[in-house]
C-alpha cells in the first residue's frame, strides 16, 4: 500500500468527517453575529485549533492502541472531559468570551440547535456493528438505542420548531435529556473491557469502541453533541 493510500485509509472513515462537520457547525454558531470583539474572536479560534489538534492526537494514539491498552484508567472518558472542560475554562473564565458566548447563543435559533442532533441518527452504525457480531448487546441497549430514539425525537422537534415554536420548558427538558442520554454509552462501554466496571466476560466485548476509528465517538463527536446541548441551554436560560 502506497503512502497516499495509507493516508486515505486514515481519513476515509465517516466519523472523521462527522466530527469536522460538527466543529464547523458550532464554529458558525459562535461567529454568526456582527458584534464580535477581538478578545472573543481569539478565544473561539484558540478553541477551534485545540479541538482540531485533539482530534489529530486521538487518531494518532488510537492507531497505536493507546486507548485500548489503558481501559483500566477509563481512557475513553479523556475526550469527554477535555472537550467539555476546555470551553468551560475559556468561555467561563474570560469575561469578554463569556459575554460573546451568551450573545452568540442568543443569535442561534432553536431550529438550528435542534436540527444539529439529527446527525445522531448515525448511531445506527453501532447497531450494524452489533448485528455483525462486533459489539455487545449491553452497549447497544444502554448506548445506541437511547441515542437513536433521541435522534428520532430531534427529527420531530426540528419539524415542529420549523412550523410552530416549541415551548421554553419543553426545550430545556429536551436538551437536558439529550445530554444525559450519553451516560448510558459512557458507562456501558466499560462493562466488557478491563476496568473497575467490568461485569461481562463474553465475546464480543466493547474493545472496538477503544480502537480507531470508533474511539472518535466517545473522544470527539459525542462530547461535541453534549457541548451543543450546553450551548443551547445557555441560550434558553439567558434569553
Report on the architecture of this protein.
With 239 residues, this protein is mainly alpha-helical. 71% of the residues lie in helices and 0% in strands. It is built from 12 helices and no strands.
Which key features would you list for this structure?
12 helices; mainly alpha; 239 residues
How is this fold's topology laid out?
Layout: H1 3-11, H2 14-31, H3 38-63, H4 66-69, H5 78-93, H6 95-106, H7 110-115, H8 124-131, H9 137-163, H10 168-180, H11 182-188, H12 216-238
Strand content: under 5%
Oligomerization status of the protein chains: single chain
Mean pLDDT: 92
Query: How many discrete structural domains?
Result: 1
N→C terminal distance: 55 Å
Shape: globular
Q: Label the structural class.
A: mainly alpha
Strand/helix succession: HHHHHHHHHHHH
Question: Can you summarize the main beta sheet?
Answer: none
The helix tally amounts to 12
Q: Brief description of this entry?
A:
With 239 residues, this protein is mainly alpha-helical. Helices cover 71% and strands 0% of the residues.
